[in-house]
Amino acid sequence: MDMTGLFRKFVDFTTAVHDVKYTLTKDVKAESLPAVQYRILEYLAVSPPVTPSEISECMHLSLPNTSRELRKLDEAGLCERIPDTEDRRKQYIRLSDKGTAMMEEAFAWIQVRFEERTGPLTDEEKKEIERALDLLQRKVFY
To answer: Does an H or E element contain 12, and which?
Structure first.
């Protein structure tokens, strides 16, 4: 397969990833949070700690909008700010204990849906999927 064909398969794959993620997460009841706040918490759950600028870039939000949403999450006790020890102007954001518990509950719900979607998998199929995901992580999503 040439690189153009491989790239087109990749585009199809990433589109499918977005569709599946939407399907798996669309009914997750995360304390009735707006979708943007849930997405921020989900990002914090897999990428802690991060700066507001990193959240803004990843979520495709303006920095003022990101700051506003982070303030709301902070007020709800779902995330916390950690000052940088070397640069007091810089802050890192991570989930609070309450936010971690909420995301663990959300991920448990999503895992049930994931398992329903995949159906029963043999040990070899699980290993094959894990190897494919590891390869994608190393080569594409690093």
So the answer is: helix 3-25
